[in-house]
Amino acid sequence: MSQARLMDGTALARRVVEDTARRAARLTDRTGVTPCLATVLVGEDPASVTYVRMKQNRCRTANIASRHVALPAATATEDLVGTLAALSADPGVHGILLQHPVGDHVDERAAFEAIAPEKDVDGVTFASFAAMSFGLPGFVSCTPGGIMRLLDAYGVDPAGKRAVVVGRSAILGKPAGMLLLARDATVTYCHSRTEDLSAAVREADIVVAAVGRPRLIRGQDVKPGAVVVDAGYNAGNVGDVDFDSAVERASLITPVPGGVGPMTIATLLEQTVEAAERQLGVA
Amino acid sequence: MSQARLMDGTALARRVVEDTARRAARLTDRTGVTPCLATVLVGEDPASVTYVRMKQNRCRTANIASRHVALPAATATEDLVGTLAALSADPGVHGILLQHPVGDHVDERAAFEAIAPEKDVDGVTFASFAAMSFGLPGFVSCTPGGIMRLLDAYGVDPAGKRAVVVGRSAILGKPAGMLLLARDATVTYCHSRTEDLSAAVREADIVVAAVGRPRLIRGQDVKPGAVVVDAGYNAGNVGDVDFDSAVERASLITPVPGGVGPMTIATLLEQTVEAAERQLGVA
Fold it and tell me: Per the similarity annotation, which family is this (chains A, B) (predicted)?
């Protein structure tokens, strides 16, 4: 068995961001308005601070303005909701990103729902999730959306394939499964309560690992020739897949880092420009 | 192998409706208000007329008032939306049911979204679907909700089990899978594009057939001892499961009729009273 081909998220994301930058510049030429992403951060968790800064930097490279709102860690749900509602009503803001998790004392769902669906470029609202699930227009969750772009770029058509999603979070596993189902895959959701995870994963033509447990999926769990997408983030740049053994069985595999990660931000930027186009009537 | 035990939806639904009738009477005693379900019917499709009449009749037995709005077949989306928005704002109406399908010229999704989530006792809105999917409080789609009640009544705990849902409609297959996933089943969605349906179904500890194709699931597809739930409606009182062969392999099975069907209306009535309780502040 030869080694799998790598799905290069860094290169694909670069192309998507370049296209997005051109779209943004064209929009600004036509309307005089620069697309703007508002980022909202509660508290000063170092990882969250880093993520937000990274997103702001990438906005610049894509000709997108960003506006940052930093709120104290002790911010109450109603104040966060108020901030998000104000950004939703602000015509100078086209997309809104609430960096999460937001802390246990905040009702995260209430906060998400305060984001207007037309500005929900991170795809976190009920309406965005349902639209993804029903194959209707709307913004997708950025990581699942980025995964679908990667599959498309490498010629993987999910239709009729067995897809196994390991993980069922609201912003990653659940929407990833729904997007695959909308593209006619036969989709199985596995999770911490799944009794024989290895057996379930071995059925998969496409595996999406999205659970946050280092090297949970090993090569012996991978059906020969399967497509393996590792959306896991773990300390030390380790994914949810044991890359060294899985690469010997898969036909296509995402590296960590440089696979799914870059596609997440690229999708965020692309959706921000799309939101601005729609709001400015230039879609 | 002995024959499967029947899951008697008629008997369970009777108990649920009796409980609901008592709750409704108690609510009326305390508040002077009778819970009210508004039914909206577009056109005069004979099956739809029958379904609506059946629901109105069952309302009476549950001490629920019903109000019927009949609209001509040619009703435009905006008029239907206007009707549903008015019912959503009407304090005398606690639950709203839009009989569907509504006809190809109507934007059914726009109509559903005009129903206030707190009155969405049929569980058709984006918000209800997402809440079901994320295990949050809200009203469930009535047929999937009825299925979960049946499983509970017969002591079937989905946790850790392999569940296979055949069908992926917005009001049946998709929410049924999400409710099973929220209860910790390992859930697979199959559909018309699934390549080897028999093989997928044979993995299932719990099968939910919800696709509307007569006798699609045969006994030989059923893993011995599996729980088989037939949510299919086909002409001539035939389900999606070939009952005569499946009953020889399953441990529990729903008959058609008398299985899932009665539980759908029972769930609608129960959720109407629950909606009234919440709106009247007596929850």
Answer: Belongs to the tetrahydrofolate dehydrogenase/cyclohydrolase family.
Q: Any CB–CB contact under 8 A between B198 and chain A?
A: no
CA B183, CA B161: separation in Å to the nearest integer? 10
Please answer yes or no on whether B134 and A174 come within 8 Å at the CB atom. Answer: yes
Q: Catalytic: which of A120, A122, A221, A240?
A: A122
User: B153 — contact with chain A (CB < 8 Å)?
Assistant: no
End-to-end CA distance of chain A: 47
> Tell me: the pLDDT tens digits for A70-110?
999 999 999 999 999 999 999 999 999 999 999 899 999 99
Q: Looking at this protein, which amino acid is placed at residue B139?
A: F
pLDDT (mean) for B250-259:
97
Q: How far apart are CA B86 and CA B71, in angstroms?
A: 14
Q: Can A99 be counted among the known catalytic residues?
A: yes
Count of C-beta atoms within a 10 Å radius of residue A267: 27
A188 touches chain B (CB under 8 A): yes
> How would you write B145-206 as a 3-class SS string?
HHHHHHHHHCCCCCCCCEEEEECCCCCCHHHHHHHHHHCCCEEEEECCCCCCHHHHHHCCCE
The answer to whether the CB atoms of B200 and A186 lie below 8 A apart is yes
Element (H, E) at B98: strand B95-98
pLDDT score of A1: 57
Say whether pLDDT at B1 is over 70.
Answer: no
CATH number for the B32-115 domain, one of 3.90.230.10, 3.40.1190.20, 3.40.1000.10, 3.40.50.10860? 3.40.50.10860
| Domain A31-118 coded CATH 3.40.50.10860 | yes
Query: Does A223 reach chain B within 8 Å, measured CB to CB?
Result: no
Q: Which residue of A has its CA nearest to B171?
A: A134
Q: pLDDT tens digits for A202-215?
A: 999 999 999 999 99
Domain B141-257 CATH superfamily: NAD(P)-binding Rossmann-like Domain (3.40.50.720)
CA distance B215 to chain A (A): 20
pLDDT at A152 over 90: yes
Which positions of B are annotated as active-site residues? 55, 99, 122
Per mean pLDDT, which range of A25-34, A233-242, B155-164 is the poorest?
A233-242
A152 a catalytic residue:
no
Please identify, in words, the CATH class of the domain defined by A141-261: alpha beta
pLDDT at A12 over 90: yes
